[in-house]
Amino acid sequence: MAQQAYMTETDSGGSGPERRETRIRRLFDRAVTGWRGDPRIWRRGLVTAVVAVVLAVVMAGHSRIPNAIGNLGSLTETFLPWFGLLVPVLLVIALARKSATALIALLLPISVWFNLFGGLLFDKTGTGGDLTVATHNVNADNADPAGTARAVAAAGADVMALEELKASAVPTYEKALAAKYPHHAVVGTVGLWSKYPLSGVQAVDIELGWKRAMRATVATPSGPVAVYVAHLPSVRVKLEAGFTARQRDKSAEALGEAIADEKLPRKILLGDLNGTMNDRALTAITSQMRSPQGAVGDGFGFSWPASFPMARIDQILVSGVEPTTSWTLPATGSDHLPIAARVRVDTTAS
């Protein structure tokens, strides 16, 4: 009798893990039963499946979306990584509809997105390097230029570029950075601060009519580097005109030509290009330089807007030097986030 009582008590109460396992198995069996033997799982969710296929086609063929109407192609490419957010939405719909067709169709956009951006999900940062560079659009209306300058300098950059400099604020930036950067030059609304001597400072004509780009030779301990600083024209999204970027595109072409004509083999571009690496409008530049963020960064490195970064329109691009790491800096008084990278100028070093 004692043994029978013991068995009865055990069966009625049960252990915690065993009861949880039984409950989970029951829920799983109930979910599977709802799908098993239901021929409609292939007929339901056809609209969701079509949307998934269209999403995959748009992401895979973004370069073929024409710019003739409102620069739709460039607009798509600017926010292309965010298209992936539609996948979990479609997944929930497919599961709710119990549609096997939609679930299979979802494999297409998932595969395309991971092919385009999967590499950015992993930390590829390395070590080493002999030159740290940083760039920041400080915002002409920045209420704390001195604090912004100190915050960017705290990243330990050897060479730092600032864009959207208001003439009245330049002395403030110069004073705040004088101790760390004995060499600097300002051309129009862009400036370059360096721990190493500068030479060959000159404006770069990006066909704007005013100065928003410059070039200088930085005499680093590992050899001379041509450093370009640029702030390409802003783009606008308007209901009546779409993604208006004609002036930006024209300036990008001019900047690309200037960099292509550079005599020094080592080149670094710092600045606010008002476009992402996916944007075809920047091909004149991106076809001859690469992004440290894409090569050795951690994540997407979005830089704008600072309150909720959605795109990386601030860029560090290099040619003839080897990037080792790239990162985004904390917010300042600007509507952009500063970004930084470390590179190896002496590529012969192990």
TrEMBL record:
Residues 134-336 form the Endonuclease/exonuclease/phosphatase domain. SUPFAM superfamilies: DNase I-like. The chain crosses the membrane at residues 41-59, 79-96, 103-122. Keywords: Membrane, Transmembrane, Transmembrane helix. Coiled coil: none annotated. It comes from the Bacteria. InterPro entries: Endo/exonu/phosph_ase_sf, Endo/exonuclease/phosphatase. Pfam families: Exo_endo_phos. This is Teicoplanin resistance protein VanJ. The lineage of its organism: Bacteria, Bacillati, Actinomycetota, Actinomycetes, Kitasatosporales. The gene is vanJ_2.
